[in-house]
Structure formats: C-alpha cells, structure tokens
C-alpha cells in the first residue's frame, strides 16, 4: 500500500525479522486447499474481529468525554474542589501510563483477544459502578477500573489489526480510528441532552454508556479460544523486542517522539476534560458546550485518514507538526479573547490541532526499520508520553481554582504548543532510532 509506512507491513519485513506475521498466515486468511466449511469459518472469524474492533474502539473514549460534559454537575454533587476535579481529569493519562505498560505481558500470557475481552468487561464494570459511587474516592476507583480496561485495549488494538489483517493494516486502522473518534464525539454531544431526557440525573447520564461497553464484550468471547497461537506469536515478538529494549533510551528521536506524544496528549486531555466548562463559564449553554466538544473530537474522523497518508509521502513531517501546532495556537488565542463569540471556530481549530495523535502514531511507524523496533519505540514513546501528560489537566484545575477564571489556564495551554512544535519537528526528521541507538 503506497500510503502506509513500510515498517508497519509485516509482509515487507526483511528476512531477518522475527515478526510472526511475516512467517505465518494470519488467522482467518484463506489458503490453498481450504475446504468450503473452513473458508466460511475463516470469513466468520474475520467478520467477528471487525465487529469487535469497531465496538471496542467506540468504547475507548466515552468514559472520558461523557464525564467532561457533566463535570460541573459531578463536581458539585460529590463536593469536589477545582483541584480535585483537575486530579479527576488527570486520571486517564495516569491509568494509560501505568496499565498500558502491562498490556504486552498480559497478551503474552493470555493472548491479545482475551486481554481485549477482559478490557471491555473492565470498562463495562467501571461505567456501571461509577454512577453509584457515594463519594469522590469511589468515583475515582470506578473510573480507574474503566480506564484500566481502556489502557490495555488501546495498546492491543494495533496488535489485533496486524495479526488478523496483515495485508489491510491501513484500512483497518482507519476503520477503528474512525470508530474511536465517533465514540469520542458521540459521548461528548449526546451526554447532556440524554441526561436531560432521562430526568436530569447525571448518574443516569453517565451510566447509560455502560450498555455499549456490554455489547463490546460479546464479539471477543468466541475469540478468546484462539489463545494458544496468539500467545506463541506474541511471545516470539516480545523476545525480539525485549532483547534490545535498553538501546531505545539512547535515541534522541525516541525521546523527541515521547515528548511530542506527551505534549499532544496533554492538549487532548485538557480539551476533553475542561473545554466544555470553559464554554459554559463563558455563557454557552451546557448542551451546546457538549456539542462543541463533539465538533472538536469529530474532526479526527476525516483527518485520521488524510494526515497519516500525507505524512508517509513526506520524508520530513515537521511541516505538518507546525501546521497543526499553529491551528492550536489560533484556537487557544480565540478562547482567550472571545470564547463565546467564536466558539465554533475555536472548536474546529482545536479539533484540527488534536489530530497530532494520528500523526504521532504514524511517525512512530516511520522512525524504525523493523517490526520489533516499531513495537519497542511505540511502547517507549507512549509510556513516556502519557507520563508527561499527567500534570497538565491537574495544573489547569489548580490555576482555574486559584485565579478565579480561565485566563491563566488558557495561556498555559497555548504556551505548551510551542515546545510541542519544536519536539515534533525533531521527531519528524528523516531518520530511524536504529541510526542513533
């Protein structure tokens, strides 16, 4: 596929690679001599995985964006200060940093499909328990459970795609990226009006998203039995990556990617956690504020296809990094000067800026020559990145509480775009981590 990074295609690996997809037929792939019954079973498996991917992706963000839309009501009912609410918005990247690291080890032991199935079950359990929490601690614990499921599933989605669809990585990645953006924006837009329609209780408005999580468990249950082969393949890849793992820390490009991933994640989680409140404090109705967040999130649907394809056609991705960063600067400047008057414009600009996420994933795939290197670089960059992103939403909450307005927090958000553009430009240079480590 001309628009895909070469390092992401298992079929294009050098002969020395240990990537399992290069030497074994993917599960569900038709091979010569298959009986009609076996071919039907293979098609059924691939169809089931496709449905599972879409439903899983739909559930990877509603736990976060539905809360952002009702943060004022939740904070008031549970007696949260601005600082505590900031802690709440910092929980997602903290969970992603902590639990995402465990995903490869869990996949080696139980198989990727089984871990994703458990992740969907954890999301459902957390979302169904969260509305019944009697206080802040219980609410945080239930949220952490859901986010733990999101973390491990998020890490393993690309693994599932590579394993079952090695010849359709671009299209399947685009499919689940679109579903992820759709779930994100849907929860942001629908939570407030749905809560109002169901009687105005925020607990019901948040709890209803557990229904979609329950549906997402079902397609993965039949795939759990595919455990033996999955664990063998995952262990083979892990053995290759763990042997060379210490070298990645000596790569400047790896550190630049980690910092870029962390700064873009900081902006994304600040946006998801606080943007509706910024608009509401500026006089925008709560339902409209939720729709504005949805507009920001839904920009990721078309641009998730466009930006990676454009990036793979360029040797240096720095210009894209700068263009997205300037959109973010313009959006935050607008929020500072006229948050309500130009609300729709600022939401669109910040939506474009937040598409730094698919760009970061694309650059991770382009900055290593081998499949094992991509896995190693991805784990390093995302772990470092999510750790970097933890203080941002908390700091915004502290500044908001102690300054009495959104001036200082918005200045901070805009200021962070400058180092993001700098490290992103460094990460976008035409080189690989193998050259440096």
Span between termini: 29 Å
State the total count of DSSP E strands.
Answer: 0
Q: Please, what is the oligomeric state?
A: single chain
Question: Low-confidence parts lasting 5 or more residues at pLDDT below 50?
Answer: 1-24
Q: How many alpha or pi helices?
A: 21
The profile of the biggest β sheet is: none
Helix content: over 70%
Mean pLDDT rating: 81
Q: Which radius of gyration do the C-alpha atoms yield?
A: 21 Å
Shape: globular
Task: Tell me the strand percentage band.
Answer: under 5%
Listing every helix as H and every strand as E from the N terminus to the C terminus, the arrangement reads HHHHHHHHHHHHHHHHHHHHH
The helix/strand class is mainly alpha
Description:
With 437 residues, the protein is mainly alpha-helical. The protein has helices spanning 36-58, 62-69, 71-77, 82-100, 103-110, 112-129, 136-164, 169-197, 202-207, 210-217, 227-243, 252-281, 286-298, 300-312, 318-337, 343-353, 356-366, 371-389, 391-403, 407-427, 433-436. It has 21 helices and no strands. It starts with 35 loop residues before the first helix and ends with a helix. Mean pLDDT is 81; it is low at 1-24.
């Amino acid at each position: 596929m001309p628009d895909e990074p070469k390092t992401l295609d298992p079929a294009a690996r050098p002969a020395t690679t240990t990537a399992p997809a290069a030497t074994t037929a993917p599960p569900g792939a038709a091979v010569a001599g298959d009986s009609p019954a076996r071919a039907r079973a293979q098609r059924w498996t691939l169809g089931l995985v496709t449905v599972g991917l879409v439903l899983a992706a739909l559930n990877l963000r509603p736990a976060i964006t539905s809360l952002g839309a009702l943060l004022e009501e939740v904070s008031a009912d549970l007696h949260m200060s601005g600082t505590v609410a900031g802690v709440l918005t910092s929980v997602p990247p903290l969970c992603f940093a902590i639990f995402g690291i465990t995903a490869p080890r869990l996949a080696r032991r139980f198989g990727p499909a089984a871990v994703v199935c458990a992740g969907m079950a954890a999301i459902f359990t957390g979302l169904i328990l969260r509305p019944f929490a009697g206080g802040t601690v219980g609410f945080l614990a239930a949220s952490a459970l859901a986010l733990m499921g999101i973390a491990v599933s998020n890490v393993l989605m690309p693994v599932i795609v590579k394993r079952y669809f090695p010849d359709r990585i671009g299209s399947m990645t685009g499919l689940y990226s679109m579903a992820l953006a759709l779930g994100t924006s849907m929860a942001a837009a629908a939570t407030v009006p749905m809560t109002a329609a169901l009687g105005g209780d925020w607990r019901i408005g948040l709890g209803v998203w557990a229904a979609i999580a329950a549906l997402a468990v079902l397609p993965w249950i039949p795939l759990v039995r595919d455990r033996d082969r999955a664990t063998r393949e995952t262990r083979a890849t892990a053995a290759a990556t763990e042997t060379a793992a210490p070298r990645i820390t000596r790569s400047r490009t790896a550190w630049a990617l980690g910092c870029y991933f962390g700064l873009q994640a900081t902006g994304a989680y600040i946006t998801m956690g606080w943007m509706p409140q910024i608009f509401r404090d500026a006089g925008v109705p709560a339902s409209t504020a939720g729709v504005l967040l949805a507009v920001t999130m839904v920009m990721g649907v078309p641009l998730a296809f466009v930006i990676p394809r454009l990036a793979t056609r360029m040797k240096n991705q720095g210009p894209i990094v700068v263009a997205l960063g300037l959109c973010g600067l313009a959006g935050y400047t607008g929020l500072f000067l006229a948050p309500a008057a130009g609300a729709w414009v600022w939401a669109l600009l910040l939506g474009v800026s937040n598409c730094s996420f698919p760009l970061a994933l694309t650059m991770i795939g382009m900055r290593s020559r081998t499949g094992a290197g991509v896995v190693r670089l991805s784990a390093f960059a995302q772990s470092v990145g999510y750790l970097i992103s933890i203080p941002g939403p908390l700091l915004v909450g502290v500044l908001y509480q102690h300054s009495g307005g959104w001036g200082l927090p918005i200045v901070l958000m805009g200021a962070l775009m400058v180092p993001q553009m700098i490290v992103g430009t460094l990460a976008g240079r035409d080189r690989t981590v193998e050259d440096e480590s």
